[in-house]
Amino acid sequence: MSKYILPALTCLLVLTACNKTGNTTSSDSSITASTVTTEVKELGNEEFRKLVGEPQADGKHWKFASDKPIIIDFYATWCGPCKKMAPNVARLAQEYDGKINIYKVNVENARETASIFGFNSIPTLLFLNPASGQLWLKSGYQDYSSLKDYIKETLGL
Q1: Is residue 111's pLDDT more than 80?
Q2: Fewer CB near the last or first residue (10 Å), C or N of the chain?
Q3: Residue 1 lies in a domain
Q4: Per the residue annotation, which of 71, 82, 90, 114 is the catalytic one?
């Protein structure tokens, strides 16, 4: 009988660990799939060039495809912090609908696009401001209030 206890406890511990979602801040805890109705559009390589733009040949300038500010969430389906941040990004898409174009790029499905920016970790958010011609990268999990502050700082909204 005791030879079954250790494997059973191991399975229980693994299942418990896989179900943990981590700590949330009070501003994130009210965000659920049922409260956020806006879906963030996922872009592949071609759609990215069409809707966002592309770097110029000199490597220093960007040709924007939109006159609105853009935020792109670079993520992977297996990434825990990416999954945790997805509702925050969806909430931003809902709140800034019509003011900011917000997209997501799966780094495994759109490697060409992800390689343009040379970042080494996900989640990474790309903030683009066509009015100023500037780009900003923000890596790691970001709570909702931090994202709002960063939008004010970089995009002026």
Answers
A1: yes
A2: N
A3: no
A4: 82
